[in-house]
Amino acid sequence: MILDYGYAKYDIQIARLVFSWKSLLDYDPNSSSLDLAVGDHFYIYHQETVGYFLYCRHRIQYSFGGEVVDGQEYIQPISSESVAIYAMLHNLNIIKMEKLERYFSKLTDTLKLKFTEDSEGNIQTRKDFLIEIDRILESKKLENLDMKYDFSELRGCFAIGAYRAALTLMGRILEFQLKIFCQRNSIKLDEKSMIGQIIKSITDSGFYLDPSLVKIWEIINQQRIIGVHIKENAPIPSREQALMVGFAVIETIKRLSE
């Protein structure tokens, strides 16, 4: 694909692929290749004359078990700082390989400032996060017995540093809570609806959800797929990534339970 602005031309054929990631929904029934799977496929390239750019292509399946076809694709120029952000979420090794340390330091300093301020009610560490889970388990917010078991297992995963397993459990917890919210508010869902579709149904019904929840789900879903299918390689999530997702999921559950 080529994007020609006139003054700048972006071409994936001549650019260098830096790294890629996927937000997948399912396999292509006619192929075991994840490159052909249903979902969004993201690639970051670097081209000497124009710098970094993001290339995205969609693979679409219009019916269950049906043919998977190519959907829309687009190219978007991005900054070095944006590359560092994507690398923090998907592949930390890229920071050093692309010499993005100064952007990484700036971003981590910002996050540290956010999570280590000594303000009342601020969750600072893994210990505080575990305390927060205990509070939820002791409260009456959990309406589903499976969710209580999931939170108990989540606590154990965080306590031993099993962050990939923790992210998978948080995806299950988030899906449970979103579906309970839909049932309580008479929001109709297809029984095969994925979390992305559930989030859209809730917002389309006039309810507010934090826009970052979609990105949180992409991080969870990547690890969920890796945990089930061994054909995909992905970096093990860091403690900071797991805590970031954990804070967001707990905050969502609190809001949806009000």
Walkthrough of the structure:
- This protein has 258 residues and is α+β, with helices and mostly antiparallel strands.
- It has helices spanning 80-90, 93-97, 101-116, 126-138, 145-160, 163-184, 195-204, 213-228, 239-257; strands at residues 2-4, 9-11, 16-26, 38-47, 51-61, 68-77.
- Helix content is 50%, strand content 19%.
- It has a four-stranded antiparallel β-sheet with strand order 3-4-5-6. A two-stranded antiparallel sheet has the order 1-2.
- Strand 1 and strand 2 (9-11) form a beta hairpin.
- Helix 4 packs antiparallel against helix 5 (145-160) and helix 4 (126-138) runs parallel beside helix 9 (239-257).
Low confidence ranges = 116-123
Mean model confidence by pLDDT: 80
Radius of gyration: 20 Å
Which class of secondary structure composition applies to the elements?
alpha+beta
The quaternary state of the protein chains shown equals single chain
What spatial order of strands do you see in the largest sheet?
A: 3-4-5-6
Please summarize the sheet with the most strands. Answer: 4 strands, antiparallel
Q: What portion of residues is helical?
A: 40-55%
List the total number of helices: 9
Per DSSP E runs of 2 or more residues, the count of β-strands stands at 6
Element order, helices and strands? EEEEEEHHHHHHHHH
Strand percentage, roughly? 15-25%
Terminal residue distance = 47 Å
Shape: globular
